[in-house]
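Appendix C reproduces, verbatim, an entry submitted by the partner laboratory led by Prof. M.T., so that reviewers can inspect both the input and the predicted structure.
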Amino acid sequence: MTIRTKFTLSAALIVVLALAQLVVVLMLMGNQSGLARAQEVQHESWRLANELRFSSDELTRTARTYVVTGDRAYEEEYWQILAIRDGTEPRPDGRTVPLRRLMEDIGFSEAELDKLNDAEDNSNALVATEVAAFQAMLGQFTVEPGGTSRDLEDYTRTGSPDQAFAIRIMHDPKYHEDKDLIMGPIAESERMVVDRTLAEVERLTQRSRSLILIGAVIGLLLVAIVVLAHLVAQRPVLASTNLVRSELAELASGAADLSKRLSIRNNDELGALAAALNGLMERLEG
């Protein structure tokens, strides 16, 4: 193999490995960007899931506080919480968007949203109880004594405000059962969100580790190729070149031992040069 071929192969290997290293770096940068996005989605998904659970608890707290104290500020707070969640009033950040829409936009899965649908379906009974309690505080009741309904038009019977009735239906076993029917699916959806986002972050984190390992291996290969090129190509070439140069210098000075022959047997340019020089010395000796 000629010297030129050796150096060409070495250079080609170095270029290929350098390009591979560049590709790995670009892939790692893209993966890190995806990981940052996944972590952002993870944080926002957890926040939205927690907001739903927190708002449900806040609705219960404000409704109960209102019927116990009679302070209508708590009733107003109740409806404000519900309006913000439903997207009919601005959120603290100024956006007027339903919580459900935010969950869809951030990437809640169909299964996770189905659980929230279950919670929403189960909330009808709870809301009916809370509306009945609010109306009882105003002396408005359904035709059927002790009845509940979400529809204000169903409260056609009037009478004296009945705070005791309002307090009772907001704290009785049925209310707790209805509350559990809501919080159960919410908790399941929250768990599914946590599992999904954690899995995605872990997948991208593992991919980053793999890319870093591949990059390190390519880097080591680059170093090995450079060292190998020096040991296999450059050092022998330099040694043979020095030997030929020394012999030529002796010939030029007239102090050469014409019986001595160069022991370079390389099948390359230096080998051909050494053979020609040995032939010249043979002719000069003869």
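The longest strand covers residues 140-141. Additional entries are available on request from the coordinating office.
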